[in-house]
Amino acid sequence: MLDDATRNDPEKRFPSWENTVIVRARTFDEAYEKVQRIARTIAKPYPGGEEGVRVKWEYVGMTDLLPIYEELGDGAEVAWTERPPRKLKTLNG
Question: What pTM does this model have?
Answer without folding.
Answer: 0.66
